[in-house]
Structure formats: C-alpha cells, structure tokens
C-alpha cells in the first residue's frame, strides 16, 4: 500500500513534537503510530476508544492512558524524524481491518473495509471517483453538455468532477457568488454543526481554524474551491431558473432563467439540480404575517441594516438557526422573547467553539495518516456509530420518551448534559426537556451556550402558543399580547417542497410537482420517472439525521450521476435515460419501511423531515455505507434508454 504523502520534517524540535502530542486526538495518534511502525501491538492493549454519544474529545481514554500513549508516540516520532530512511509501514488489508475495528469498537464488515480503505486512501484510491466514465473515450464524453443548477456545495462538486472527466458544463445560480446555503445564511452565529474534517470534500482538506467553522470560513472554503478549480468562468451568476423543459424529440433540456437584464435560455443534454433542501424560507402559518410595522425578517434573509441594540426582539422558533442566532441577539438587545413550540434535543460538544490548537495542526499536516484517521473517527462517531441509538426496537412502547433501550440511554445522557447547565433553573429544565425520543427531529449542537443564553436576565423563553402577528408584536392563544421593536422568524424552510419554485416539465409536458402531488420521491434521491436526464443532488430521502456530513451524500450522488453520464456518453448525444417506474416504486417502498423503523419515522413530533401527510420525505433511513454501495454506479437495467432525433 502506498504511503500518505505527509512526512515528519527533519527539523522539527523535540519540544515541538511534545507540544503537538499534548493536543493529539489519542485514538487517531495510536493508528498513525501503527502506520509509522507497522506494530499492531500498539492498538492491541487495553487502551481503546469507547465510541460515545456525548462528545468526549478523547473518546473515553483516561488521562493516564493518554499520557502513556503520548510518551510512546514521542519516542517513535522522534526516531522517525532522526531516521535516515523515514518510511511508513506497508499494511495488509487484515491489518487495516483491525485498525478500523479499533475505531468502531466492533467487528468490521467487508463493505466497510472497502469503503474505508478508499476513504482513507491507503492505496491512493478515490472513494467517490467514477472509473466508468474514464473508460468512455474522451471525444464521446466531450459531446455532452451539462447544466448544473446551483453553485453551492453540490454544484461546485459536480463541476469539479465533470471537469476532471472532460464533460462540458455550465453552472447557473440565482445568487451573486458561490456557496449556496453558506452564501445565503449570514445570520450572526451561523456555524456548521458537523465537524469540519468530515464536513469538507474528501479531496480538499484545509487547515480549519476551528473544529466547527463559522459561516464566513465556510463561505470562503467554497469560494476558494471555485477559484482553485477555475470554475467561475463556467458560472452564470444572478441567473435564476424559472423552469426546465424536456424537448423529447431532440433529447435536450431547455432552461428558462430570470436575470437582472430580463430573461434568457440555455440548452443542455443533462441537468443536475444542486439547489439543496433548505433554501426556500418558510414563514409561520399565522394570521397577520406581514402586518408587523417594525423591522421583521427571516433568519436566512438577515437584515444587517437593523441595529438590535437596546431593542425588544421577538424570535419565533427554536430550530438550528434560532439556536445559533439568539445568543448573539441577546448580547445586543434590551430584551429577547423566544417563542418555543417544540424544544430541541441538544448534543453538548466541548469543542464546538474551540480553536484548533497549533499542535493539532502540526499533527494533521505532518504525521502520516493522522488526518485520515481523525476524519474517519469523526465520521464514525457522528454517523454510523449513532444509528443504533435511534433505531426502533420492536415492542418498545414509550413513544413520548424513547424508541429502544439504547435510545432511552441516549435520552438519559442528553438529560444529564442539560442538568449540568440547568440544575439551578428547574423551570427552564422542564420546558427545555423534549417529550419525544432523541433523533425524531434534528438534534442541535453547542457547548452549552444555548442554555446559558436562556438563563440571561434579558432573555425569556416562552411556550405560549402564538395566535397571530399584530402590527406591534404578537398575540398569544392565552390572550396575552406582546409588543416588540423587531421580529425575527427562525421558522425554517419549505424543505418538503423540493426544487421549488422551479417548474420542471418532463415527458409529455408533465410537471414534476404535479406528478408528485405533494409526495416527493426519487430513485436513490437522484432520478424521477418521466424526467429523463434530470438528476438531483440532496433530493428526497437523502438527508442524514444524526449529524455526520451531507457532503458525503453529495459525493456519492455525483459519482452515481457521472456513472449515468458514462452510460449516456457510450450511446451518444440525444440519448436519454429514464428510471423505470417499477424500480423507483420498489425503492421507495423500501425507504418508507426503513424510515418507519427509525425514531423520526415513529414519533409524531413536528419536524421538517416530514411532509404535510406525515411521510418522511427527507431522510435516508439506513447506514451511510449502504448509500455508498448502492450509488457506486447505475445499473443500466434500472433505466429505459431512448434516442432523440
Ligand atoms: P427548523 O429546524 O425547521 O426550525 C423552525 C422553528 O420554527 C422550529 O422551532 C419550529 O417549531 C418553529 N416554528 C415554525 N412555525 C411556528 C409557529 N407557527 N409557532 C411557533 N414556532 C414555529 O428551521 P431552522 O432552524 O432554520 O433549521 C433548519 C435546518 O437547517 C436544521 O435542522 C439544519 O438541518 C439546518 N441548519 C443547519 C445549521 C448548521 O449546520 N449549523 C444551522 C442552522 C440550520 P417546531 O419545532 O414545533 O416545528
């Protein structure tokens, strides 16, 4: 197996090594040492990580054990530095399997070994590459034109992969720059809630200043990515897609767009929608919205011209956005009243606002394989490793609390965390304790800042139900009226209204939303029967509930879409591929059944994961490895191929 290109610099001093080790994530360090030495006994002792729900930065390894590992690491790294022929050991698949098992704390199945060997790139693999497309000859690939809608995370990724494959593409975006959600959401406190070493492209890591970046840092990451791959020359900014229409005869899609100058059209053989799920702000369904005379805005349309200093501010909502901006608003406003309908479960993470210490940067940049194992340990802790705790146990019947014994334990851990912060405020503890199982709706992450904010003298959390918005504030169902200077809607997005407000006309002029009739579904979240050559990223049932990283899904989806392009390129321009109805329907039966077996599918709590009929339209119910496997490449028998004139 090939080595990580990183090398220990020969001029690093003993003190620098010691201070880097003081900050190390010890499980990742232990695995990096195995690469350095080939000595598996390093991970065969009793010192093992305990994958846990509540974040312990050292995954349960005691201080004494950490010290022992650091001392050993110092000797080994120093000797590698001083070695005339520094090298990393060549490891067998069985050894890599053992190392993966060390992180996971359990037996490892073959599909994980394949995925993780590629994700870790131990042999220089690309876990999300599409080899099939590269097998099609270059001139056949270049005959296709692809239109990408959206220059956010998935749009840039699609462009990068198409560029690598030599397929011409154009990106259109309604905004004035790249970044999508990280361009649009500028509210104070906006920050990612997945660790950045997983919330990043597999092929583009960076020296993140913090473990969880703030919006400006993420916006810059995507802007820098666009520049690094020279993508801006392909992007038409301020081009908002109004409709896409299939010209069946010619096998092309015609896109109508609104621009600052008027309107324009574009044609392509293939469309990839990269518009995301959370980009159409939802206002509360209350009488009087719009009647408020003072400044009023939605979190995703933050009005930075409004000075909140000394103001009485009303905030509606306690979802991911309000959870992040209320602490900042509270620092300025005279009084903040937060209207809570459903309390969120809060996952406490001590590192949520922490800077990444220099020592950790040194390890990430110089110790071979450290960064890759660190990324994997986050992937495991925040995704696959949590799934068991949100899976319904048959016969468990405590719908207001939990869905299984593991979920009950998880609940208790979350409550213990809340108690740490709210023990002195039993009134708040009571209203902040959810009466639904953890995992039923999006869990929120911080280091306790939300609870601290709720305890401030100038913050009032109220569970008073709203009746209407009035010109001067709000009226509550209990008859109380409250006056505000500013109203902020943290009321989320029209998540179930996928691809709106665009109108998408497929075969026989059928419009996608009309075909859905309020029940958005897709095959693998990517293709829709009757809409050939229209591909979707972050489509129906591709959202992850436990935090992990949506970039993982996008990388899988784009790999699949490029596999579809390989099928089209083999058959020539004008070819269309349409997913078969029965394949699509059978897939969705499996998805619906899967979701019923998860906390979010069983609980009756309000959540944007469901549509108006109560069906889970957003979430993927299985392991991430299953999605990775099923999206490796398309099965041509799932599609009907036709050729236009
Ligand atoms: P959200 O989670 O849908 O929250 C909307 C909030 O508004 C909920 O508390 C909801 O209450 C409340 N609400 C809506 N209508 C109401 C009414 N009539 N009366 C009272 N309350 C009302 O939206 P969001 O906070 O914008 O977050 C959406 C998603 O975006 C998140 O779940 C997350 O996936 C993503 N996000 C991510 C980050 C991040 O990564 N850092 C940050 C922000 C958002 P109910 O709960 O009762 O419906």
Unreliable spans are none
The main β sheet shows up as: 5 strands, parallel
CATH class designation of the largest domain: Alpha Beta
Shape: globular
How far is the N terminus from the C terminus? 49 Å
Please identify, by name, the CATH architecture of the largest domain.
3-Layer(bba) Sandwich
Tell me the strand order in the biggest sheet: 3-2-1-7-19
Radius of gyration: 25 Å
Q: What's the CATH H-level superfamily name of the largest domain?
A: FAD/NAD(P)-binding domain
By helix and strand content, what is the structural category? alpha/beta
Number of strands: 21
Number of helices: 21
Percent helix range: 25-40%
CATH topology of the largest domain: FAD/NAD(P)-binding domain
Please indicate the percent range of residues in DSSP E strands (runs of 2 or more).
5-15%
Number of domains: 3
Bound ligands, each once: NADP nicotinamide-adenine-dinucleotide phosphate
Whole-number average pLDDT? 93
Fold and architecture overview:
The chain contains 21 helices and 21 strands. The chain is globular, with a radius of gyration of 25 Å. The protein has 3 domains: 14-125 and 358-384, no CATH class; 131-280 and 498-643, FAD/NAD(P)-binding domain (3-Layer(bba) Sandwich); 284-345 and 441-492, FAD/NAD(P)-binding domain. The strands form 6 sheets. Strands 3-2-1-7-19 form a 5-stranded parallel beta sheet, with helices on one face. The two termini are 49 Å apart. Helices cover 35% and strands 14% of the residues. The chain has 645 residues and is α/β, with parallel strands linked by helices. Helix 1 (14-22) runs antiparallel to helix 3 (63-82), helix 2 packs across helix 13 (370-387) and helix 8 (153-165) runs parallel beside helix 18 (550-571). The mean pLDDT is 93.
């Amino acid at each position: 197996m090939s080595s990580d290109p990183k090398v220990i610099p020969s001029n690093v001093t003993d003190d620098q090594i010691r201070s880097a080790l003081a900050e190390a994530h010890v499980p990742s360090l232990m695995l990096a040492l195995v690469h350095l030495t080939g000595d598996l006994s390093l991970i065969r002792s009793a010192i093992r990580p305990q994958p846990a729900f509540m974040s312990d930065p050292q995954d349960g390894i005691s201080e004494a054990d950490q010290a022992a590992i650091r001392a050993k690491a110092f000797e080994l790294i120093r000797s590698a530095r001083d070695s005339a022929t520094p090298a990393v050991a060549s490891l067998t698949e069985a050894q890599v399997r053992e190392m993966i098992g060390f992180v996971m704390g359990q037996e490892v199945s073959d599909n994980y070994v394949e995925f993780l060997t590629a994700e870790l790139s131990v042999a220089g693999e690309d876990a999300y590459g599409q080899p099939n497309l590269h097998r099609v000859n270059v001139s056949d690939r270049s005959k296709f034109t692809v239109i990408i809608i959206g220059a956010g995370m998935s749009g840039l990724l699609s462009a990068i992969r198409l560029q690598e494959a030599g397929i011409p593409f154009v990106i259109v975006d309604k905004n004035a720059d790249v970044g999508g959600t990280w361009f649009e959401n500028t509210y104070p406190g906006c920050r990612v809630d997945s660790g950045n070493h997983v919330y990043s492209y597999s092929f583009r890591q960076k020296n993140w200043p913090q473990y969880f970046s703030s919006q400006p840092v993420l916006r810059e990451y995507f802007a820098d990515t666009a520049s690094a791959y020279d993508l801006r020359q392909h992007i038409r900014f301020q081009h908002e897609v109004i409709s896409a229409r299939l010209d069946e005869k010619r096998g092309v899609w015609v896109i109508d767009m609104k621009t600052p100058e008027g309107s324009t059209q574009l044609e392509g053989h293939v469309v990839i929608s990269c518009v995301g799920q959370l980009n159409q702000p939802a206002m509360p369904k209350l009488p009087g919205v719009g009647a408020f005379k003072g400044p009023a805005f939605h979190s995703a349309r933050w009005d930075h011209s409004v000075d909140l200093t000394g103001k009485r501010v009303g905030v509606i909502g306690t979802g991911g956005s309000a959870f992040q901006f209320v602490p900042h608003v509270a620092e300025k406003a005279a009084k903040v009243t937060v209207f809570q309908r459903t309390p969120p479960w809060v996952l406490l993470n001590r590192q949520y606002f922490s800077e990444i210490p220099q020592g950790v940067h040194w390890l990430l940049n110089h110790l071979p394989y450290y960064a890759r194992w660190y990324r994997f340990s986050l992937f495991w802790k925040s995704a696959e490793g949590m799934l068991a705790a949100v899976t319904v146990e048959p016969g468990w019947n405590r719908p207001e609390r939990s869905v299984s014994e593991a979920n009950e334990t998880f609940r208790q851990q979350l409550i213990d965390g809340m108690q740490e912060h709210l023990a002195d405020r039993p009134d708040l503890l009571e209203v902040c304790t959810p009466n639904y199982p953890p995992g039923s709706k999006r869990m929120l992450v911080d280091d306790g800042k939300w609870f601290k904010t709720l305890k401030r003298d100038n913050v009032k959390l109220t569970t008073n139900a709203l009746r209407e918005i009035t010109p001067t504030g709000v009226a509550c169902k209990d008859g109380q009226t409250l006056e505000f200077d500013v109203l902020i809607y943290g009321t989320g997005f029209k998540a179930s209204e996928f691809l709106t407000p665009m109108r998408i006309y497929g075969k026989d002029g059928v419009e996608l939303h009309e075909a859905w009739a309020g029940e958005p579904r897709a095959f693998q979240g990517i293709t829709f029967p009757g809409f050939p050559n229209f591909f979707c990223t972050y489509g129906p049932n591709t959202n992850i509930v436990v935090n992990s990283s949506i970039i993982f899904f996008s990388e899988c989806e784009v790999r699949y879409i490029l596999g579809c392009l390989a099928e089209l390129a083999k058959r020539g321009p004008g070819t269309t591929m349409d997913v078969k109805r029965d394949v699509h329907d059978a897939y969705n039966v499996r998805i619906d059944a899967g979701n019923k077996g998860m906390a979010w599918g069983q609980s009756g709590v309000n959540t944007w994961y469901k549509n108006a009929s109560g069906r889970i339209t957003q979430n993927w119910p299985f392991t991430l490895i299953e999605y990775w496997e099923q999206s490796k490449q398309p099965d041509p028998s799932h599609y009907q191929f036709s050729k236009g004139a």
